[in-house]
Automatic annotation (TrEMBL), chain A:
This is AP complex subunit sigma. Keywords: Cell membrane, Coated pit, Endocytosis, Membrane, Protein transport, Transport. CDD domains: AP2_sigma. It comes from Oncorhynchus kisutch (Coho salmon). GO terms for cellular component: AP-2 adaptor complex. Belongs to the adaptor complexes small subunit family.
Automatic annotation (TrEMBL), chain B:
This is AP-2 complex subunit alpha. It is found in: Cell membrane; Membrane, Coated pit. Keywords: Cell membrane, Coated pit, Endocytosis, Membrane, Protein transport, Transport. Residues 748-853 form the Clathrin adaptor alpha/beta/gamma-adaptin appendage Ig-like subdomain domain. Component of the adaptor protein complex 2 (AP-2). Adaptor protein complexes function in protein transport via transport vesicles in different membrane traffic pathways. Adaptor protein complexes are vesicle coat components and appear to be involved in cargo selection and vesicle formation. AP-2 is involved in clathrin-dependent endocytosis in which cargo proteins are incorporated into vesicles surrounded by clathrin (clathrin-coated vesicles, CCVs) which are destined for fusion with the early endosome. Residues 616-653 are annotated as: Disordered. A 1,2-diacyl-sn-glycero-3-phospho-(1D-myo-inositol-3,4,5-trisphosphate) binds at R11, G12, K43, Y53, K57, Y58, V59, C60, K61.
Length: 144, 972
C-alpha cells in the first residue's frame, strides 16, 4: 500500500503555507516533521535530484520561486508521477488565483484546502484533469 | 475564470491576516491574537444570535490562528453549527475546521456524524462531496462505524455523479486503511471492479487506487480486475496523444492513471490467459518504444510524465521477471538514462537497474554498464545518487567483476560521506567474502577496510575475518604475516589490534621462523599497543599472550613478567585482573602438555550464513514516520539492499576522551518473560564478569565451545545476536552548570547500590545494572514494556549538557529494550545526567525524565590502610576547606551491620580497628576522575541515645568533600 503521507508547502524561511496530513500525527510530531522537511529540502540545489530520502520514506519536492512543494511518499512509489503531480497542482493554483503568489496562499488558505481536496484525497490522486478541477472550482466559487 | 481576490467574501478575515503579517514581533502577534480571541469569544457568548456569515468568519479566523500554531479551545460548537447551514461557503468552513481541528474522541462526534449523514443523503453533489471529504480526511473509527456501510452504496449507485463517485471511492479507501474490519466489500466487489470500465477517467483513477489497496489485502477477490486493467491500459497507451483531451498532460495520455494501472497489475503474477498476456506485453512494448521516439515537447513535464509511465512499466516487467526480451530492453533503456543530463533520471535509472540486476535474464546486461556506474560513484554531486551507485555495484557484483568492484568501493570509502560509510564497509566485507577465490585477497580487503574506515567496521566484520582465517588453513600464514606488517604502522586502529592479537595468538608460529618476526618481536609489537587500547581489547591481548606462552616457550619469562606486574595483577578492572592472575598461574603450574591442550588452536567454526549479511539485511533507518507504516514498506530487492544509513559517530567524536558511546540494542525479546525482573535474572548470567560488548542474553556460541579454556570467550556480542545498534555520543556528567530539569531525584538507595528498578509507572519499568571502575562506568538500562501493546517511536536519550540521541524506535508489548551507557568521569560533579524517554503508547505521546543514579561516589576505589596511615593522612587533610562535617538525625534504625554495608556500598574501604572508639566507622578511598585522583577519608560517629550521627569527610578537594558528605549523609 502506498499513499501520500503528507503534503507541505513551505517558503524558504520555513513558514508553512499549507500542511495537509493523510495520517494521524499529534501536533508536536507535525511540527517536527515540518522542521525536518525544511532542513532536508532547503540545503539541496538544482544539481540535486528532486527526491530525498526521509526517515523510511522519501520526499518528492519541487521549488517554485520561494516556495517548496513537498510530498512525502513511500520509498517504492513512483517519483516522477508525484513530481508531475506537484506541477499539475501548481498549474491549477496558478490558473485559479491568476498568477498565484505566496500571498494568495496566505489570504486564501481555506480555499487552498478545497483545491487540494479536489486533486488529492485520502493520500491518493483524485483528479488529474486541470480542466475538470478548474470547472469544479469555478462552480464552487459561484456558490459564494 | 475570475481571479480570486485576496480574502474576498470575508473582509474581516483579510484585515486580521494583514494585521498579523504586520506584527513586528512575536509578542505583538500574540497580543493581536489574544485581542481577536477575546473578541470572538464575546461574539460567541453574546446574547445576539450570530448570522451564518459572521459565524463562518469567526470560525475561519480561529482556524487561521490555530494554523499559526496557537491552541484553540473554543469555537468547535459554532463550527459544527456551520455544518447544517444551507450555504456552501459556510458548510465548507465548518467542515474544514472539523477536519483540521477535531480529534476523534471529541464529544461533538455524534453531532458531526449527524450533519455528515444529512449531507450524504442530500442528493446535492457538492454537499455530498464535502461530507465524503470530511470522512476521508478524518478517517476516525467513529466515522467508519457510522458510514462504512453507506459509502460503498453511494460509490456504486447508478445515479451518483462522477465527482461524488471519485470522492466515495477514496473515502472508502481511507476507511479501509483505518478500520479494515468495518469495511466489508463482499457484495460490492464486482461492481467496484467494474468501475475500471467507467467512461470518466477521474472515476477510473480513484477506483484504481481503491482496487489496488483492496487487491493487496485479498488478491483472490479482485483478480478479475487484471483483464479490465490491461484493457484500460491498452486503450490509453494506443490512443493518439490528443484522444483523451482533459486527461492528456503535456502530450502524454493519462500518465497518472497509466502508472496506477501498472501498479495494480503488480499485485498479480503475469496473466495466465494468453490473449490478455499478449495484450499486456504489447502495451509494455509500446511504452518502451515510445521512450525511443523523439519527444513531442521539449518541456521537462513531457519527459517526466512519459518516464513516470516508463519506470512503472519497467517495475512491472521486473515484477513479472518472465520476459527476457522485455527485461533486456528495459535494461538498455535504463543504460541510456545512466548518462542523461537530468540528475533525476540518472538517479532513477541506477535505482531501477538495481532490481534488474537480480534477475537472471538481465544480470549480464546490467553488468555491461559497470564503467558508467563506477564513474557515477566518482563524479555525482548528489550523495543520494552516489548511494544508488553503490547499491547497484553491490547488486551487479559477481565472481567476474568482484575484484574491480571491491577495489572501487574501497577507494570510494576514503572520501565517502560519513552517513553511508558503515553500509559500504558491510557491503565490501560481504562481497570480499562471497567472491573470494583466494583468501589472501579477502584478508587484504578486510585489513584495508579497517585501515580506511576502522571506526565503521562493526564487530561482525572483524569476527568474520577471524572465523574465515581459522577455517582456512591456506590463508593462516599469510594472515599472520599481513597483520604483523599492518601492526607496524605507528598508529593503527583498535580493530586492527584485535584482529592482530587474535591471529598472532593463533598463528604467530607460522611466521616466527623469520628473524624479523621472531616471537619476542611479535610480542613486543603487540604489547606496544596494549596501553592504548580499551579494556576488551586488552583482555583479548592478555589471551593472546598466554597463547604465546604455549606457542613460544622462549618468551614465557618475558610474558610472565608482564602478567605479574602491578598494572596487570592489581588492575582495577576485574576481568583484566582475573585473566592476568589465571594466566600467570596457569603458565606457572601447568605442564607443557596440559598447556598445549588447554591452549590448543581454535577448532574451525561451523559454516553458516555470514553474520554480516544478516546485519546488512537487518539494518534499518533510524526512524519511521509512524511505526505502523513499517509493514507497508515494501522491501527493495534483497540484492539491491535497502539500507538506510544510521548515524554513526565520526572519527573525531570517538577519539575524544570527553565522549561516551552508547549502544542500543534490543535483545531478542524472550517471549515468555515479559517483565524486567525476569529478564534480569536471565541476564545476570551474561554479566558475571565484565563483558564489555555483550549486549544481550545471547550466549556467545561462537567463541565459547566445549573443551579447553577459551581465552576469547568474553569477546562480546555473538555473531548472531546483535540487532542494529547505533553509536552515539554524549558529553559526560562533569558539567557544573548543567541544566537542572524539574525532575524527581532517583531513589537515594542507588547511591550505595548499582542495580535495581530505577523507575516504574503503569506502562514502563526502567531497570538498571551498572558497574564502575576507576573513572569509568557502564550502565545497562533496561526498558520494560509492561503493557501488551507496542510502544512506538521509542526514544531514550541522555542529557548531560544538551545533546539528545535517538534509540530504537519500538518496544513490543511485554518486551524489553536494553541500552548501554558508557560513562566517564572527567572531574568531580554534582548534577546527575538525565535520561529522557519518549514513546508513543496508543495514541498519546509519553514523556518520562529521570535522573540517572550516577553520583560522584561511584568512582570510588576503596583503599585499605593502617590506623597509623589513616591518622597521618587525616592530619594532612586538616585545612578548613578540606573538611566538611554534618550532624544529622537518623532516618533509619541505627543497625551496625546495615551501616557497614552502606559505607562499603558507597565505595569506601571500611577500616576496622582504626578508630579508637569501636562504635565509630571510618573509611578511605580514592575518587578517580579522568584528570585527577582525590583521596578521601571519612568518619561516621553514631550517637544511639540521641539517634544522631556526625559525619566528617576530609578530602584533598573541597567540592569533593562537600558532595560526598551530602550524598552519604542521606543514607542513614
Amino acid at each position: 500500500t502506498v499513499w501520500i503521507r503528507f503534503i507541505l508547502i513551505q517558503n524558504r524561511a520555513g513558514k508553512t503555507r499549507l500542511a495537509k496530513w493523510y495520517m494521524q500525527f499529534d501536533d508536536d510530531e507535525k511540527q517536527k516533521l515540518i522542521e525536518e522537511v525544511h532542513a532536508v529540502v532547503t540545503v539541496r540545489d538544482a544539481k540535486h535530484t528532486n527526491f530525498v530520502e526521509f526517515r523510511n520514506f522519501k520526499i518528492i519536492y519541487r521549488r517554485y520561486a520561494g516556495l517548496y512543494f513537498c510530498i512525502c511518499v513511500d520509498v517504492t512509489d513512483n517519483n516522477l508521477a508525484y513530481l508531475e503531480g506537484i506541477h499539475n497542482f501548481v498549474e491549477v493554483l496558478n490558473e485559479y488565483f491568476h498568477n498565484v503568489c505566496e500571498l494568495d496562499l496566505v489570504f486564501n488558505f481555506y480555499k487552498v484546502y478545497t483545491v487540494v481536496d479536489e486533486m488529492f484525497l485520502a493520500g491518493e490522486i483524485r483528479e488529474t484533469s486541470q480542466t475538470k478541477v478548474l470547472k469544479q472550482l469555478l462552480m464552487l466559487q459561484s456558490l459564494e | 475564470m475570475p481571479a480570486v481576490s485576496k480574502g474576498d467574501g470575508m473582509r474581516g478575515l483579510a484585515v486580521f491576516i494583514s494585521d498579523i503579517r504586520n506584527c513586528k514581533s512575536k509578542e505583538a502577534e500574540i497580543k493581536r491574537i489574544n485581542k481577536e480571541l477575546a473578541n470572538i469569544r464575546s461574539k460567541f457568548k453574546g446574547d445576539k444570535a450570530l448570522d451564518g456569515y459572521s459565524k463562518k468568519k469567526y470560525v475561519c479566523k480561529l482556524l487561521f490562528i490555530f494554523l499559526l500554531g496557537h491552541d484553540i479551545d473554543f469555537g468547535h460548537m459554532e463550527a459544527v453549527n456551520l455544518l447544517s447551514s444551507n450555504k456552501y461557503t459556510e458548510k465548507q468552513i465548518g467542515y474544514l475546521f472539523i477536519s483540521v481541528l477535531v480529534n476523534s474522541n471529541s464529544d461533538l462526534i455524534s453531532l458531526i456524524n449527524n450533519a455528515i449523514k444529512n449531507d450524504l443523503s442530500s442528493r446535492n453533489p457538492t454537499f455530498m462531496n464535502l461530507a465524503l471529504h470530511c470522512i476521508a480526511n478524518v478517517g476516525s473509527r467513529e466515522m467508519a462505524e457510522a458510514f462504512a456501510a453507506e459509502v460503498p452504496r453511494i460509490l456504486v449507485a447508478g445515479d451518483t455523479m462522477d465527482s461524488v463517485k471519485q470522492s466515495a471511492a477514496l473515502c472508502l479507501l481511507r476507511l479501509n486503511r483505518t478500520s479494515p474490519d468495518l469495511v466489508l466489500m463482499g457484495e460490492w466487489t464486482a461492481r467496484v471492479v467494474h468501475l475500471l470500465n467507467d467512461q470518466h477517467l477521474g472515476v477510473v483513477t480513484a477506483a484504481t487506487s481503491l482496487i489496488t489497496t483492496l487487491a493487496q489485502k485479498s488478491p483472490e477477490d479482485f483478480k478479475t480486475s487484471v483483464s479490465l486493467a490491461v484493457a484500460r491500459l491498452s486503450r490509453i497507451v494506443s490512443s493518439a496523444s490528443t484522444d483523451l483531451q482533459d486527461y492528456t498532460y503535456y502530450f502524454v495520455a493519462a500518465p497518472w492513471l497509466s502508472v496506477k494501472l501498472l501498479r495494480l497489475l503488480q499485485c498479480y503474477p503475469p496473466p495466465e490467459d494468453g490473449a490478455i498476456r499478449g495484450r499486456l506485453t504489447e502495451c509494455l512494448e509500446t511504452i518502451l518504444n515510445k521512450a525511443q521516439e523523439p519527444p513531442k515537447s521539449k518541456k521537462v513535464q513531457h519527459s517526466n510524465a512519459k518516464n513516470a509511465v516508463l519506470f512503472e512499466a519497467i517495475s512491472l516487467i521486473i515484477h513479472h521477471d518472465s520476459e527476457p526480451t522485455l527485461l533486456v530492453r528495459a535494461c538498455n533503456q535504463l543504460g541510456q538514462f545512466l548518462q542523461h543530463r537530468e540528475t533525476n533520471l540518472r538517479y532513477l535509472a541506477l535505482e531501477s537497474m538495481c532490481t534488474l540486476a537480480s534477475s537472471e535474464f538481465s544480470h549480464e546486461a546490467v553488468k555491461t554498464h559497470i564503467e558508467t556506474v563506477i564513474n557515477a560513484l566518482k563524479s555525482e554531486r548528489d550523495v543520494s545518487v552516489r548511494q544508488r551507485a553503490v547499491d547497484l555495484l553491490y547488486a551487479m557484483c559477481d565472481r567476474s567483476n568482484a575484484k574491480q568492484i571491491v577495489a572501487e568501493m574501497l577507494s570510494y570509502l576514503e572520501t565517502a560521506d560519513y552517513s553511508i560509510r558503515e553500509e559500504i564497509v558491510l557491503k565490501v566485507a560481504i562481497l570480499a567474502e562471497k567472491y573470494a577465490v583466494d583468501y589472501t585477497w579477502y584478508v587484504d580487503t578486510i585489513l584495508n577496510l579497517i585501515r580506511f574506515a576502522g571506526d565503521y567496521v562493526s564487530d561482525e566484520v572483524w569476527y568474520r575475518v577471524i572465523q574465515i582465517v581459522i577455517n582456512r588453513d591456506e590463508v593462516q600464514g599469510y594472515a599472520a604475516k599481513t597483520v604483523f606488517e599492518a601492526l607496524q604502522a605507528p598508529a593503527c586502529h583498535e580493530n586492527l589490534v584485535k584482529v592482530g592479537g587474535y591471529i598472532l595468538g593463533e598463528f604467530g608460529n607460522l611466521i616466527a621462523g623469520d628473524s624479523r618476526s621472531s616471537p619476542l618481536i611479535q610480542f613486543d609489537l603487540l604489547h606496544s599497543k596494549f596501553h592504548l587500547c580499551s579494556v576488551p581489547t586488552r583482555a583479548l591481548l592478555l589471551s593472546a599472550y598466554i597463547k604465546f606462552i604455549n606457542l613460544f616457550p622462549e618468551v614465557k619469562g618475558t610474558i610472565q613478567e608482564v602478567l605479574r606486574s602491578d598494572s596487570q595483577l592489581r588492575n582495577a578492572d576485574v576481568e583484566l585482573q582475573q585473566r592476568a592472575v589465571e594466566y600467570l598461574r596457569l603458565s606457572s603450574i601447568a605442564s607443557t602438555d596440559i598447556l598445549a591442550t588447554v591452549l590448543e588452536e581454535m577448532p574451525p567454526f561451523p559454516e553458516r550464513e555470514s553474520s554480516i549479511l544478516a546485519k546488512l539485511k537487518r539494518k534499518k533507518g533510524p526512524g519511521n514516520l509512524h511505526p505502523d507504516l513499517d509493514e507497508n514498506r515494501k522491501e527493495r530487492s534483497a540484492n539491491g539492499g535497502t539500507v538506510a544509513a544510521s548515524p554513526t559517530p565520526s572519527t573525531d567524536l570517538l577519539g575524544l576522551g570527553s565522549t561516551i558511546t552508547t549502544q542500543n540494542s534490543a535483545p531478542p525479546a524472550s517471549k515468555g518473560t515479559s517483565l524486567l525482573v525476569d529478564v534480569f535474572s536471565e541476564n545476570i548470567a551474561a554479566f558475571p564478569v565484565e563483558t564489555p560488548v555483550a549486549v544481550g542474553p545471547v550466549a556467545d556460541e561462537n567463541f565459547s565451545r566445549e573443551g579447553g579454556l577459551h581465552p576469547y570467550c568474553t569477546l562480546g556480542d555473538s555473531f548472531v545476536g546483535i540487532q542494529s545498534w547505533q553509536s552515539i555520543q554524549f558529553i559526560n556528567p562533569k558539567i557544573p552548570d548543567m541544566r537542572c530539569l524539574p525532575l524527581a531525584p532517583f531513589p537515594s538507595r542507588f547511591v550505595c547500590k548499582n542495580n535495581g528498578v530505577l523507575y516504574e509507572n503503569q506502562l514502563l519499568q526502567i531497570g538498571l545494572k551498572s558497574e564502575f571502575r576507576q573513572n569509568l562506568g557502564r550502565m545497562y538500562v533496561f526498558f520494560g514494556n509492561k503493557t501488551s501493546t507496542q510502544f512506538m517511536n521509542f526514544a531514550a536519550s541522555v542529557v548531560c549538557q544538551d545533546t539528545l540521541q535517538p534509540a530504537d524506535p519500538t518496544v513490543d508489548g511485554g518486551a524489553q529494550l536494553q541500552q548501554i551507557l558508557n560513562i566517564e568521569c572527567m572531574s568531580d560533579f554534582v548534577d546527575a545526567p538525565v535520561l529522557n524517554i519518549q514513546f508513543r503508547y496508543g495514541g498519546t505521546l509519553q514523556n518520562v525524565a529521570v535522573k540517572l543514579p550516577i553520583t560522584l561516589n561511584k568512582f570510588f576505589q576503596p583503599t585499605e590502610m593502617t590506623s597509623q596511615d589513616f591518622f597521618q593522612r587525616w592530619k594532612q587533610l586538616g585545612a578548613p576547606q578540606q573538611e566538611v562535617q554534618k550532624i544529622f538525625k537518623a532516618k533509619h534504625s541505627m543497625d551496625t551491620e546495615v551501616t557497614k554495608a552502606k559505607i562499603m556500598g558507597f565505595g569506601a574501604a571500611l577500616l576496622d580497628g582504626v578508630d579508637p572508639n569501636p562504635s565509630n566507622f571510618v573509611g578511605a578511598g580514592v575518587i578517580h576522575t579522568k584528570t585527577t585522583q582525590v583521596g578521601c577519608l571519612l568518619r561516621l560517629e553514631p550517637n544511639t541515645q540521641a539517634q544522631m550521627y556526625r559525619l566528617t569527610l576530609r578530602t584533598s578537594r573541597d567540592t569533593v568533600s562537600q558532595r560526598l558528605c551530602d550524598l552519604l549523609s542521606e543514607q542513614f
